């Protein structure tokens, strides 16, 4: 997936909050809030709802920490990304669950 840049006009008056020198060109994408789905009168409004809120800490390109080439994280939240990665045991359990879901018995045919 290709990295999508934010509209640079959004940041013309905002300095990077990390180095405080350059103009900000990125916002932190770390999810800080999950919102409950809400009922809407029509399907279009339902599709447009935001299900989560992000940190949105303004940063310049040099101060951002990019993850998977598409997500930008501020220095504070980049530390959490390293901490919340699944352990090998968790990955094994997830893979086993997926295999059972796909193949029924957890084993390849």
The number of domains is 1
Most strands sheet: 2 strands, antiparallel
* Beta-strand percent range: 15-25%
What's the shape?
A: flat
Strands in their spatial order, largest beta sheet: 1-4
What's the assembly state of these chains? single chain
**How many H/I helices?**
3
Tell me the total number of β-strands: 6
What structural class do you assign from the helix and strand content?
alpha+beta
**Poorly predicted sequence stretches spanning 5 or more consecutive residues:** none
Mean pLDDT: 81
Binned, the helix content reads 25-40%
Helix and strand pattern:
EEHEEEEHH
Alpha-carbon Rg, integer: 19 Å
Amino- and carboxy-terminal Cα gap: 31 Å
Which short descriptors sum up this protein?
109 residues, alpha+beta, two-stranded antiparallel sheet, two-stranded antiparallel ribbon, 3 helices
Structure in words:
The structure is a single chain. The protein is 28% helix and 16% strand. The chain has a two-stranded antiparallel ribbon. The chain has helices at residues 43-48, 75-83, 88-103; strands spanning 26-27, 31-34, 52-54, 58-59, 65-67, 71-73. Strand 5 and strand 6 form a beta hairpin. With 109 residues, the protein is α+β, with helices and mostly antiparallel strands. It is built from three helices and six strands, in the order ββαββββαα. The chain has one domain. The chain is flat and about 55 Å long.
């Amino acid at each position: 997936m290709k990295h999508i840049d934010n509209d640079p006009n959004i940041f013309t008056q905002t300095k990077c909050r990390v180095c405080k020198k350059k103009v900000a060109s990125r916002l932190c994408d770390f999810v800080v809030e999950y919102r409950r789905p809400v009922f809407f009168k029509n399907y279009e409004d339902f599709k447009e709802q935001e299900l989560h809120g992000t940190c949105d800490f303004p940063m310049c390109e040099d101060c951002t920490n990019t993850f998977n080439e598409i997500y930008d994280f501020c220095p504070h939240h980049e530390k959490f990304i390293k901490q919340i990665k699944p352990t090998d045991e968790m990955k094994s359990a997830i893979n086993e669950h997926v295999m059972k879901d796909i193949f029924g018995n957890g084993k390849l045919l």
